Amino acid sequence: MGLNDKGAPGKNIGILWFTDGSKTNNGVGWGYHIVCENDSDPLQGHGKLGDDNSVFQAEVFAITNAARSLLASSTEAHKIIDFYIDSQAAIKAIGKISSISKVVEECINTLNSLGVNNMVMLHWIKAHVGHDLNEKVDALAKLGSTEGPYKQLPRPTTVHAIAFRDILMDKWQELWMKPDKTFNKLPFRQTRLWFENVDNKYSKDFLKLDRSILSKLIQAISGHSYLNYHQYKIGRTSTELCRFCKAANEESHHIVAVCPALSSQRQRALHTTGFDIPMDLPSLLRFLREPTIGRLFSSEGVEQTDHVSDSFQNF
Ligand SMILES: [Zn+2]
Q1: How close is the Cα of 13 to the center of ligand 1, in Å?
Q2: How far away, in angstroms, is 262 Cα from ligand 1 center?
Q3: What is the whole-number distance in angstroms between the Cα of residue 290 and the centre of ligand 1?
Q4: Strand, coil or helix: what is 130?
Q5: Which residues, other chains included, contact 107 with Cβ-Cβ below 8 Å and sequence gap of 6+?
Q6: How far is the CA of 303 from the centre of ligand 1 (A)?
Q7: What is the pLDDT of residues 127-165, one digit of tens each?
Q8: Contacts of residue 278, Cβ cutoff 8 Å, sequence gap at least 6
Q9: What does the alpha-carbon distance between residue 177 and residue 174 come to, in Å, rounded to a whole number?
Q10: Rounded to the nearest 10 degrees, how much is the dihedral formed by the CA atoms of 186, 189, 191, 196?
Q11: What is the pTM of this model?
């Protein structure tokens, strides 16, 4: 390489490093290409990572390997070493003093070793804009996804997080399908009309809502609301029938999807006179904002009655 005889200590000798990580249909790969000033022989390398390793890990691992290769070469000190990296995330991660990621921590330590007697500079370079050396290293990383030394790095945190989420979802579904021991049937009958299975997407959307809106939405779905069916069960109304059509129990499903007396509200908010549930959330929220419907899910919607069932005399 002749890196050590290009000038006296203190005299800058430029070394340009290009590194990249890539994910293709064949896997995850890394690559580096090092150009030394006045030297016609570049250093380069590539390799393959585990299928569950990330492109970010490949980017960082490429930098680590590039630094190792120069440390292992006959380079001397007092050089300016310019890294060109097209991953801002990688630059940010290795720019810190330490990291909880072993892959990043190893990279930081290797760069620190290189920086003891050299000046190491990290630069971001925009990807895929036709820079020759960056295109070259991109090709090396893609080659690395198909061949080259194989290394399985620790799974990235996101992989652990996804696995943990999957376990939780399975457990949640298992609980959802577990019959009530006392009654030997599935609990939450009304909610089950909306959700046959657990649905993480709906949960996330729900949790983004304002608390007061979320409260009405949960009432509408669970049936634990001011509607007559529930209020009759707890002794607060004299009838469980729908106050509009008197033809069926006043439950959420009936109000939202069935009651013929509310077809105009349904038409206005949902653009249909009847539909299956679950429906999309914005439509349901629009329906709940209809004045007639909104009242049903607030205390002012409780039908006044003199009837109080015996078991709830002191409720
Ligand atoms: Zn009705």
Answers
A1: 84
A2: 7
A3: 16
A4: coil
A5: 60, 61, 63, 64, 67, 94
A6: 14
A7: 776 777 788 888 899 999 999 899 999 888 776 777 778
A8: 194, 195, 199, 202
A9: 5
A10: 50
A11: 0.51
